[in-house]
Write a structure and sequence with these properties.
Elements: E1 6-9, H1 11-25, E2 29-30, E3 32-33, H2 35-39, H3 43-49, E4 57-59, H4 62-70, E5 77-79, H5 87-95, E6 97-101, H6 104-111, E7 119-122, H7 137-146, E8 153-157, H8 170-182, E9 189-193, E10 208-209, E11 235-247, E12 252-253, E13 259-260, E14 265-270, E15 287-290, E16 293-298, E17 306-309, E18 321-325, H9 331-337, H10 342-347, E19 354-357
Helix pairs in contact: 3-4
Length: 358
């Protein structure tokens, strides 16, 4: 019998979060970002669950786009990182993938390719990761025209660096830079809106928005949890309680003896650890839940198990299911305790954790 450590995926919650994104996007159409294996939720099942809602998907690379086609879905797929080889352009043209071009090398490949996919250009509006500088756009457009590829250009994209912080002026500056850079081509579509941008009052999202983490119930905003933003958790990470014991005052639990009981404490061991993707840095006082009652972790997370204080759940017994995050304990709460973000936690769940779809 397999170990009952599972990630339960609520596909109806996913669909409701997508509708929330649509409401917040206003007149913009909404492409569903399903990269990183659907943020750890399973790209095929996630994309299929959104098939009658999402007119377009977005992923990072060709491999992820191919997984969508293997699921039998025909919607266009935007490749946010573009292509990594010239031969990928033919694949894109034949399969309806839309690469985002951001480099000189990619332009050179496009010029030499006979097959021209629909494509986007990335504008570096200030994040300084990928994209063409605004001053380069005119020459890039001329090159596309000479190569006969201008007719396949969908439009322009950029990415915000500080949209998670509503008090940062950088999002407004990047928006202004992007608008000025693309003003000469008003017939082309534009896309700027990551999840966080959906929660900026008055922020234009133009023609296409690109929600990611918000579809899965995680918060894209500093100081806010998903539920506080009207989002529903999609993943419930659960593992069995496999042992309980009394730890006398003065004795320790786990590696490094990092937690010492200050009183006699009923302790339980849970069959999940960093080998399953649960964060090792989530230490003492990180919340969990059992039978709807909130409890806390104690000591260090091991590879295959972790310890919890059962004081808050006196009726808990071996075999009960412990929620590591879900509807009782938010993934954003756990992320804060572990010094990270919900994106990392959701995408980090390993293959030995089964996905059960609701």
């Amino acid at each position: 019998m397999p170990r009952p450590t599972v990630a339960r995926i609520d596909l109806e919650a996913l669909r409701r979060n997508y509708r929330t994104a649509c409401q917040r996007a206003g007149s913009a159409r909404v492409m569903a970002v399903v990269k990183a294996d659907g943020y750890g939720h399973g790209i095929s099942r996630v994309a299929s669950a959104l098939a009658d809602l999402a007119p377009k998907y977005a992923v990072a690379c060709v491999e992820e786009a191919l997984a969508i086609r293997e699921a039998g879905l025909a919607q266009p797929v935007v490749l946010l990182q573009g292509v990594h080889a010239e031969t990928d352009l033919t694949n894109c043209a034949e399969r309806g993938f839309e690469p985002v071009l951001h480099s000189e090398q990619q332009l050179t490949w496009l010029s030499g390719s006979r097959n021209r996919p629909r494509l986007w250009l990335k504008v570096n509006s200030g994040m300084n990761r990928l994209g063409f500088h605004p001053g380069e756009l005119a020459s890039v457009m001329q090159r596309l025209d000479r190569a006969g590829a201008l007719a396949t250009l969908e439009g322009f994209v950029t990415h915000f660096a500080c949209a998670d912080d509503v008090d940062s002026p950088m999002t407004a500056r990047q928006t202004e830079v992007f608008e000025q850079a693309t003003a000469a081509w008003p017939e082309r579509m534009r896309s700027v809106g990551n999840s966080a941008a959906h929660f900026h009052p008055g922020q234009p999202l133009y023609d296409w928005s690109r929600p990611g983490i918000m579809l899965y119930g995680g918060s894209p905003m500093i100081g806010k949890t998903g539920p506080e933003l009207g989002l529903e958790p999609v993943m419930s990470l659960e593992a069995p309680l496999i042992s309980t014991r009394m730890v006398p005052a003065g004795e320790s639990v786990g590696y490094g003896a990092s937690w010492v009981a200050d009183r006699d404490t009923r302790m339980g061991m849970v069959a999940i650890g960093y080998g399953d993707g649960y964060p090792r840095h989530a230490g003492t006082n990180t919340p969990a839940a059992i039978n709807g009652q909130r409890i806390r972790l104690i000591g260090r997370v091991s590879m295959d198990m972790l310890a919890v204080d059962l004081t808050g759940a006196p009726d808990a017994r071996e075999g009960d299911s412990v929620e590591l995050w879900g509807r009782t304990v938010g993934v954003d709460e756990v992320a804060t305790c572990a010094g990270t973000i919900s994106y990392e936690l959701l995408t980090g769940i390993t293959a030995r954790v089964g996905r059960h779809y609701l």
